[in-house]
From TrEMBL:
The keyword Transferase applies. It comes from the Bacteria. It comes from Candidatus Synechococcus spongiarum. The lineage of its organism: Bacteria, Bacillati, Cyanobacteriota, Cyanophyceae, Synechococcales. It holds the Pfam family Semialdhyde_dh. SUPFAM superfamilies: NAD(P)-binding Rossmann-fold domains. Belongs to the short-chain dehydrogenases/reductases (SDR) family. GO terms for molecular function: N2-acetyl-L-ornithine:2-oxoglutarate 5-aminotransferase activity; NAD binding; oxidoreductase activity, acting on the aldehyde or oxo group of donors, NAD or NADP as acceptor. This is Acyl-ACP reductase Acetylornithine aminotransferase. It is an enzyme of class 2 (transferase).
Length: 350
């Protein structure tokens, strides 16, 4: 049995969902109420692969809310730990950390705290899902850039958030597998950028405002900050932007002719799943679409790989990406593409 640990995208969405489920105390409660709420197993469901194999899973809401950061980071960390302990005690063989839960785990180095009250967490039961997410983002670049007339062997690709776990894996894959003309590396930590550049034996380190006008493809593995504006008039036409950050916000902030924003790291299953959890994440087709990190837990269960397939920072190998990618195709997942886009209202940031 596999598990998925997630959370609502906002306090407002969480309260609405609580009302729908009949949790009126939480629907009307304030943030303090949610801070003291333990994890909840909201639903269980079955998933069937095209191979014929059927597995059972469960969705655990950590009851974390983005509004808890940054002021209540200790509460956020505790919620992730409690959700992991809950999954283990309830017998989930492998559980994916979705949304902010994996970010909180890594950024707050929660691996230092293996014991949660009376439970000693067994790390092999958990995965961040980042390997599958990285592979899906690379597949989205490879499949969709040519549709816009962008030949990757002649293209300049900027990776924003290049030094993160997913970002560095995307850089390695694009360098080795697609032979892009040039990689532009964008991140906040100069030392990590220089280390990545040495590992890749290439790539140009640039600031965001320098990289964007040069790029035919931009892979965002970090959300666009609210206080940062993008002058769309300076961007290349056409330009493919793959929004692999969390939360995803490019499609509402960057919209202009010949700029194509694609939700990165999202997959669609081959058939409907009888769950309701993806309505919380506001997927276009919630019965089939999900985050690639969640799909990784399903793939590990389908294959019987009960291990922390994705764990730690910058440990994703090309071999592991190929392995999870093959399993992804075998079990009926596909990456979202340009043909899946729903037209958004015109909004130009300049």
């Amino acid at each position: 049995m596999f598990g998925l640990i997630g959370h609502s995208t906002s306090f407002a969405v969480a309260r609405k969902r609580a009302e729908e489920l009949g949790y009126m105390e939480h629907a009307k409660g304030d943030l303090d109420t949610w801070c003291s709420t333990p994890p909840q197993l909201l639903e269980t469901f079955t998933v069937k692969s095209p191979t014929g194999k059927e597995i059972t899973g469960g969705y655990i809401d950590s009851c974390f809310l983005p509004e808890m950061l940054p002021a209540r980071f200790k509460t956020a960390a505790r919620k992730v730990q409690n959700a992991m302990a809950y999954a283990q005690k309830n017998g989930f063989s492998v559980t994916a950390l979705g949304g902010f839960t994996s970010i909180i785990f890594e950024n707050f180095d929660l691996a230092r705290f293996q014991k949660v009250r009376s439970t000693m967490l067994e790390w092999q039961r958990f995965t961040t899902g980042n390997t599958h997410t990285a592979w899906i983002i690379c597949r989205q670049v490879e499949d969709n850039a040519p549709r816009l007339g962008i030949a990757l062997e002649k293209a300049v690709v900027a990776v924003v958030g290049a030094t993160g776990d997913i970002g560095s894996a995307v850089c390695r894959w694009l360098k080795q597998h697609t032979g892009v003309k040039e990689l532009l590396l964008v991140a906040r930590h100069q030392g990590r950028l220089e280390t990545l550049q040495q590992e890749l034996a290439g790539g140009n380190i640039l600031q965001l405002e320098e990289a964007l006008p040069q790029a035919d493809v931009v892979v965002w593995v970090a959300s666009l900050p609210k206080n940062v504006e993008v002058n769309t008039n300076t961007l290349r036409r056409p330009c493919l932007m793959v929004d692999g950050g969390y939360p995803k916000n490019l499609d509402t902030r960057i919209h202009a002719p010949h700029l194509h924003v694609l939700k990165g790291g999202i997959v669609e299953f081959w058939r409907d799943i009888g769950w309701h959890m993806m309505q919380i994440a506001e997927m276009e087709r919630p019965n089939r679409q999900m985050f690639a990190c969640f799909a990784e837990a399903m793939l590990l269960e389908f294959e019987g790989w009960h291990t922390n397939f994705s764990w730690g920072r910058n440990n994703i190998s090309l071999v592991a990406m190929e392995k999870i990618g093959q399993a992804s195709v075998r079990h009926g997942f596909r990456a979202l593409g340009l043909s899946d886009l729903v037209t958004a209202p015109a909004l130009s940031i300049s």
